[in-house]
Amino acid sequence: MCGIAGLIHKGKSSSVGSEMTAMLQALKHRGPDSTGYAVYGNPTKGDYIMRLKVAEAEDMEKGRGIHQVIADRITEVEAILKEHGAKVKSKDAPREYSLRYVISHDGDTGEMAEHIEETDGVEILSMGNGLELIKDLGDATVVSEAYGLNDFQGTHAIGHTRMATESDVDIKSAHPYWAFPYNDVSVVHNGQITNYWIMRREMERKGHRFMSNCDSELLAVYTAHNLANGVSLEDSLRQSIEEIDGVFTYLVATKDQLGMAKDTMAAKPLVLYESDDLIAMASEEVAIRAILPEEIDTYDPYDEEVRVWQA
């Protein structure tokens, strides 16, 4: 059992970091192992924001040598950025193993990202213009405080609380997922994909990279592949119901859209609230009530329902 949540403001920015924290904290009982955010801010033209990890949280308990290992990995990453002509405009390290770079780059960003991930122990969590993807162990309050998310202003966000059932309790297996070659895509998912390995091999044959064995990552790769090939988000969501087997409800965000899809059996819950300027959805209504305590009407999307909203 996991919890998913999403919200989008139409035509304005808001405190989506603190709003998503409140929603995910309300879903803590559905997944206490890790918490993840994909938040979309107000991008500066030409800038990329890269979030990456250079070690797992559990690695920090492996003795004093890990600190030098991390320092060496960071040095190698920055040498690769320089080699590809990227200019580092700012750098932060919310945690020793988790970094945020703002860079400018005019070359092949995908090739540069692949080169960075050739560094042992390094994984890019996201690289986009508006997207920032943050995930770590612990509940929403712990992660939000560590990464300063309560101050984040933006238009939309999705989030996830994870209960590890089929893979390890680590950052690599936490949601949301991001994928090449569509920079600003992120996905959170609740359910199980039964044709995961068939679909994964199909995506791998098309040249896509997977960083985990979590079936949810397939949805991010699948969506990124479709968007990069000119398929609209709504058509990709509808197509997924035909091509992906299993029970699932998932949310997808891009630089300016938020979408949802439920499979044919609709066994995984989602509650939705929609007004003229805000759409909020979550696995349980209690998460929506965390940001909208007043009297509101909500509804449960039907089986095979697909919706897409514009920021």
| Total DSSP E strands | 14
Mean pLDDT: 93
Computed Rg: 18 Å
Portion of residues within helices: 25-40%
Strand arrangement, major sheet: 7-2-8-1-13-12
Number of helices: 8
Strand content: 25-35%
Query: End-to-end distance, in Å?
Result: 29 Å
Shape: globular
Order of helices and strands: EHEEHEEHEEHEEHHHEEEEHE
Weakly predicted, low-confidence segments:
none
For the biggest sheet, the summary is: 6 strands, antiparallel
Structure notes:
This protein has about 300 residues and is of the alpha+beta class. About 30% of the residues lie in helices and about 30% in strands. It has 8 helices and 14 strands. The protein has helices at about 15-25, 65-85, 110-115, 140-145, 195-205, 215-230, 235-245, 285-290, and strands at about 5-10, 35-40, 45-55, 85-95, 100-105, 125-130, 130-135, 155-160, 185-195, 245-255, 255-260, 270-275, 280, 305-310. The strands form 3 sheets. Strands 7-2-8-1-13-12 form a 6-stranded antiparallel beta sheet. A 4-stranded antiparallel beta sheet has the order 4-5-3-6, with no helix packed on it. A 4-stranded antiparallel beta sheet has the order 9-10-11-14. Strand 12 and strand 13 form a beta hairpin. It is globular. The two termini are about 30 Å apart.
In brief:
The protein has 311 residues and is of the alpha+beta class. The chain is built from eight helices and 14 strands.
